Amino acid sequence: MERMIQPPLVDSTCLCRVDAGLIVGAKRYVPGSKLCLQPDIKPSIHPTRCKPSRGDRTRNQSPLLPGLPDDLAIACLIRVPRAEHRKLRLVCKRWYRLLASNFYYSLRRSIGITEEWIYAIKRDREKRISWHSFDPANPAWQPLPPVPQEYSQALGFGSAVLSGCHLYLFGGKDPLKGPMRRVIYYSARTNKWHRAPDMHRRRHFFGSCVINNRLYVAGGENEGPNRALRSAEFYDPNKNKWFLISDMSMVMIPLVGVVYDGRWYLKGLSSHRQVVSQMYQPETDTWHPVDNGMVSGWRSPSTSLNGTLYTLDCKDGCKLRVYDGATDSWNQVIDSKTHLGNSRALEAAAIIQLNGKLCIIRNNMSITLVDVSRSEDDAKNCTAEHLWETIAGKGQFKTMVTNLWSSIAGRNRLKSHIIHCQVLQV
């Protein structure tokens, strides 16, 4: 991956075009699976200098794999694990263009071999940002090159994933320039950072979510006497544009948010520092204050999986609660029976979805997978029957012991803590 201080502008037509030399007649794709239509090319009536045709250029190129037609070569290359893609890009230009194309990853998706990796964004004591990736097939955290300069020390910015493979960073507050409208994204396909259109409003410490592959942001703070915001907007990657939507029913600085049953729930502080909640309905573009059992019992990061809403029930994330829509209450508990402690190092920073399971990530970078699918077979015995699997990357056990000793000695200040976790499909 190249270190890019100023990420390049995003291509407004197609992010990735299939090169003519990869495979003749291949379709061209853009993010969101919209076809990138090419205009018909009419022959010129004026005599011009002869140029080799596309077919001639294709026939003159060396094969992707010696001794094999290109279609069979591609069938082999799409089966190479994601961890080796960096090496494949270095082989030749044709291999680089193939691995950077949407065509390559659409084929991987069509035969069901896409891989899900975890990307964690951390902040250290000096407020510097770093990020790491985790491959479940080779369980070890890998440090990544620095994020672009504008986000190296930003505060209160958002993070989301669109189209499965694009990690977006947006908004936030630069220590010198103040609140930002900037939007950038990392593509797991090209392994590079790109620019996207700026938001309409400058904001930091706001709420964000993804619904139907659209990125929504709302509330937060700006500068000036009326710092708290009511405005909201969304980004459509197919149109590469931001659109304003209805303002929130009240100003809010969101603290937690979740998408459940097609609606976006937010809970945070009002301009008078009172706890308030709101719900957004995309189909009607309306906001509504909410005060039901789901919101009142919701205090931690949450996620929904297969239509069920889960939230953390203890600091170390070793106990989960399940929301029951029929009774409007959190009346079911899933307990690992093995609790780690209450230190900041062991505090659960995020709960996300990974390969059909719940994934709990802690500040010390330890990961626990919870197989909640077994609850459907025997809900009454779910506290004892659920499968909890702890994944420890290289050096994580040493880190855990160090943090525990620091807690015992009264030095509970972390070297770094996780602020965002996302899953990218590649």
Automatic annotation (TrEMBL):
Pfam families: F-box (PF00646), Kelch_FKB95 (PF25210). Residues 66-101 form the F-box domain. SMART domains: Kelch. Keywords: Kelch repeat, Repeat. Residues 144-361 form the FKB95-like N-terminal Kelch domain. This is F-box domain-containing protein. It comes from Kalanchoe fedtschenkoi. The lineage of its organism: Eukaryota, Viridiplantae, Streptophyta, Embryophyta, Tracheophyta.
